[in-house]
Amino acid sequence: MKDVIIIGAGVSGCAIARELSRYQLDICVLERESDICEGTSKANSGIVHGGFDAKPGTLKAKLNVLGNSMMDEMSKKLDFEFKRNGSMVVCQNEMGIPALEKLLEQGKENGVKGMKILKREQALELEPNLADGVYAVLHIPSGGIVCPFGMNIAYAENAAQNGVEFKLGTEVQLIERVGQDYRIQTNQGVFETKYVINAAGVYADVFHNMVSELKIHITPRRGDYCLLDKTAGDLVRHTIFQLPTEKGKGVLVTPTIHGNLLLGPTAIDIEDKEATATTAKGLQEVLEKCTKSVKNIPFKQVITSFAGLRAHEEHGEFIIGEVEDAKGFIDVAGIESPGLTSAPAIGIYVRDILAEKMELKEKENFVEERKGIVRFLDLPKEEQNRLLQENQAYGQIVCRCEQITEGEILDAIHRPLGATTLDGVKRRTRAGMGRCQAGFCTPKVMEILARELHLELKDIRKNGRRDVR
């Protein structure tokens, strides 16, 4: 019998797991994929939102601003990449000024500091490549960018360091109430627990509706993106938004934390919870709309495209709390944008819900900090030499585009919740994320995975559900 079972190893589930790992609890995370960060959390904009867009008084607004304020501290403690590059919302003409003013007042009400509306000439001093049609902008200095999978993995690893059990390749099939507890049927057997935390992304409604007569509905909202090479990464410094619509913050243009340029996303409601393929129509929409914000975009430098699904709840609000007619079952549902920004605050919010229901005793040996994978070529020469003396694998470049060494890949495989697939290595080290999109390094990464995991080459996968070896 577990104290707490968390369904879903995305950024919300892992932030909750890390926060609860402070306490003397038996916690398990169930994830149907072969790795953490395989769903919504791996395919988003990587934006740390300022908090101006959420409606005042909503949970989205509260947790967005709190999560944003926590990001500096958490990125240092858990060693993931984060930068406050600032955001801008552009309008195309004088008719858009009232909308910018509304966002400004809304942000102030939410507690966002430092915002101001800039005329075109002022904005061009900060962003010379704003499109010719941009009339004015709302400037939000507190906006930032983060590595979404790096953040997700950091929270998961620290939770694992503190005793949280992760059951990967474990798909929840049925949840039943048994007395005051819950029985969870999976493809890997039955689990029993006192409390369930439902952080299952686009499937959160499925699990909620198994235990409650008060039904909810999650609509998968597909977002298509284009990623450009690092040669285009300095086109803008800020994250450039368009005026938001009822379906979200619109198509943005932003530098990524690793120096690329990202365009997107679309916002297309679909029914298929697995439909993550891009479409020609969606990508064309991205390319056309982003030119309204930024000019001189070198579209020939696009190196890949991808799509992700956001978990849109029909009322457009986060659903976080104990289900009224299913005591002990706590929803963390409808976590779309600004879910990534809100994740640190979501962890605390859910902890407080549990604290009202059970006694939480702090551990004496809680590990507050986590150290990420060393980026070898960013180290000073003396540190590089020290590492080379310890492990010659740091002297072997495997990924030429991103300059990733074999030593970094070995670390990714053998650390807590280590990589078992090509995508697992990619998300932890960036091997395969460069200009050639793994065209050069795939065979070598496969060889390393096979050797270290004692597998045949034919058993190495790009991704996929399977038991952890």
Walk me through the structure:
The protein is α+β, with helices and mostly antiparallel strands and 469 residues long. Helices cover 30% and strands 24% of the residues. The protein contains 12 helices and 22 strands. The strands form 5 sheets. Strands 1, 2, 9, 10, 11, 12, 19 and 20 form an 8-stranded mixed sheet that branches. Strands 13, 15, 16, 17 and 18 form a 5-stranded antiparallel sheet that branches. Strand 11 and strand 12 form a beta hairpin. It starts with a strand and ends in a 16-residue tail after the last helix. The mean pLDDT is 96.
Strand content: 15-25%
Proportion in helices: 25-40%
Shape: globular
Overall pLDDT confidence:
96
Class per helix and strand makeup: alpha+beta
Major beta-sheet overview: 8 strands, mixed
Total count of helical runs of at least 4 residues: 12
What separation lies between the terminal Cα atoms?
24 Å
* Number of E strands: 22
Low-pLDDT residue spans: none
What is the radius of gyration?
22 Å
List the quaternary state of the chains. Answer: single chain
Key descriptive features of the protein:
single chain, eight-stranded mixed β-sheet, five-stranded antiparallel β-sheet, 469 residues, alpha+beta, 30% helix
Question: What's the quick description here?
Answer:
The protein has 469 residues and is α+β, with helices and mostly antiparallel strands. The protein has 12 helices and 22 strands.
SSE diagram, text form:
Elements (H helix, E strand, L loop, with lengths): L1 E6 L3 H10 L6 E4 L16 E2 L10 H20 L3 E2 L3 E5 L5 H14 L5 E4 H7 L9 E5 L3 E3 L1 H14 L3 E3 L4 E7 L2 E6 L2 E10 L5 H8 L6 E11 L10 E4 L9 E4 L5 E4 L3 E2 L10 H11 L11 E12 L5 E5 L2 E8 L5 H17 L25 H10 L6 E3 L4 E2 H9 L7 H8 L12 H12 L16
Parallel strand pairs: 1-2, 1-12, 2-9, 5-14, 12-20
Antiparallel strand pairs: 3-8, 4-8, 5-7, 6-7, 10-11, 11-12, 13-16, 13-17, 13-18, 15-16, 19-20, 21-22
